[in-house]
Design goal:
Layout lengths: L1 E7 L1 E2 L11 E2 L5 H6 L6 H13 L9 E6 L7 H14 L7 E6 L6 H10 L3 E7 L3 H7 L5 H13 L5 E7 L6 H14 L3 E6 L7 H7 L8 H17 L3 E4 L2 E3 L6 H7 L3 E5 L4 E4 L2 E5 L3 H9 L5 E6 L2 H12 L6 E2 H8 L3 H14 L3 E4 L2 E4 L1 H5 L1 H8 L1
Parallel strand pairs: 1-4, 1-11, 2-3, 4-5, 5-6, 6-7, 7-8
Antiparallel strand pairs: 8-10, 9-10, 12-13, 13-14, 15-17, 16-17
Length: about 375
Amino acid sequence: MAGLYVHVPYCVRKCIYCDFYSVESSRDSIATRLASSAAPDANDFLNALEMELRSLPRDFRPETVFIGGGTPTELSEPDLDRLLQSLHNHLDLSRVTEWTCEANPGTLTRAKASLLLSAGVNRISLGIQSFHAPNLEFLGRIHSGEDATGAYDLLRGLGVRNINLDLIYAIPGSSDVILREDLERIIALAPEHTSGYCLTFEPDTPLFTLKQKGYVLEVDDDRARSQYHLLRQATTAAGYRQYEISNFARPGYECRHNLLYWSGGEFLGCGPSAHSYWKGVRRSNVPHIRRYCDALLNGKSAQIASEQLDPEGRARESLVMSLRRTDGVSRRDFIEDTGFDYYDLCRPAIESLQGHGLVSEGEGKLALTESGLFVSNAVFAELL
């Protein structure tokens, strides 16, 4: 299975925690931004994206498509329509079974939603994060809790039957009571899928700077762990299955595109900062929209890095990505897929992690334990 990721690098306003590449579209007028050598307008971006789509391998036929960002629904209706038509014009989409688009409740309109559905999008991921006004204000979100509910109801009214709602926990100044209320509202809406992410203080974000200056205190590990447990408990009780560290789904509604990442599948990424893994080579595009546009509009590649992993490196990466799934990694399947036994690759690390109760093996599968799920990044660092 192969997938396509398309990165739309525009946001109305950058959230203080986000380290994904994007540029603010509301800071100044387009004319001012162009005059100051800031971000090109959407027309230049879409011209460059078309050039990149034309350059994709002819044998590339994705089974999943994911449009993310940034904020795809920040594009105007004509620009969004053009992006969708470009995908149809330059790719064979006949095999696509899951087509996801991220949406912000503050920028999703009936017209934009209708464009997405008519193009073939059949899964919408709404960035809710919280229904609580102080949480949304702290995070820098542009929508309200009422906007979130309204966007969800709009999608349901248009017939969307596969919706994901994103949630953030461990927000400074918030509480367990507010998280429970957020979870109750999500469960009452009954989406097919929900994702819950611990707020992280990534370098080079405003949130990280606020922490460094002492204006914001990060939620301590014990409380964050407790809220993660609350998230898992509430979703499980409501009939969702946790199939990955941060993802919960009704049976049959697991995100196929993300499962492709976690299963070592091939994918191509288009847009500034997008990554690809194709024919054993990992590539990445320049994380800068002007450089991205200038390269492609001048007949050059927007790629800035390319790496072919050796078999052992690829096997280690596959182990780490596969361990994100709560089902774990079958030892037999891992040997068949990679040619390596994971014990031969990293026995000392695995045995140490088992001793600390962070991974376990049963029925021929290695998996994160409940304790290991919360500290997964530390576990993966040991295995790499």
